[in-house]
């Protein structure tokens, strides 16, 4: 294992690089965090690298992707989010309306995020969803 890939490299090469959007990566990584324990759980990484190394790789990757998202301007975030939404089977207008009402994105921030970073993330998403909802209401109902 000394000459093999490290857990974070393996995660990026095999999984995260296959997810085309930063938002999709945030969704994926946050889904691996156990809401009760706060630990990240990935069966494959755990088998190969051990529970602690897998948790650390997932935690670090979640933090990295979150910070990458925050460096995007609103136009770039909108394009990324729109691409993510286009991969889902529900109409985008319905998605935007439901997400504004139910706020499923509130759990996407990593534990390491500061209060201001979380607030920025949430404010940006609410702005983007409002823009997208209005855009979808005026245009084709994709």
Task: Characterise this structure.
Helix 2 runs antiparallel to helix 4 (51-71) and helix 6 packs antiparallel against helix 7. The chain is 66% helix and 0% strand. With 142 residues, it is mostly helical. It has one domain. The mean pLDDT is 91.
Order of helices and strands: HHHHHHH
The assigned structural class equals: mainly alpha
Number of structural domains = 1
Oligomer: single chain
What value does the Rg take, in angstroms?
16 Å
Helix content: 55-70%
User: What proportion strand?
Assistant: under 5%
How many individual β-strands?
A: 0
Stretches where pLDDT is under 50 for at least 5 consecutive residues are none
Outline the fold blueprint.
Elements: H1 7-14, H2 22-31, H3 43-49, H4 51-71, H5 74-86, H6 92-102, H7 115-138
Helix pairs in contact: 1-4, 2-4, 3-4, 6-7
Defining traits:
142 residues; 7 helices
Please provide a brief summary of the model.
The protein has 142 residues and is mostly helical. The chain is built from 7 helices and no strands.
């Amino acid at each position: 294992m000394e000459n093999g890939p490290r857990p974070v490299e393996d995660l990026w090469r095999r999984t995260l690089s296959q997810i085309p959007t930063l938002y999709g990566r945030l969704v994926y990584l946050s889904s691996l965090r156990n809401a009760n324990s706060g630990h990240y759980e990935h069966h494959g990484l755990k088998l190969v690298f051990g529970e602690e190394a897998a948790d650390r790789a997932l935690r670090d990757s979640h933090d990295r992707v979150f910070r990458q998202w925050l460096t995007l301007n609103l136009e770039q975030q909108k394009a990324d989010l729109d691409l993510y939404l286009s991969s889902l089977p529900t109409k985008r207008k319905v998605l935007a309306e439901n997400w504004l009402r139910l706020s499923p994105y509130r759990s996407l921030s990593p534990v390491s995020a500061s209060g201001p970073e979380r607030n920025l993330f949430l404010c940006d998403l609410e702005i983007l969803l409002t823009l997208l909802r209005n855009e979808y209401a005026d245009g084709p109902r994709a």
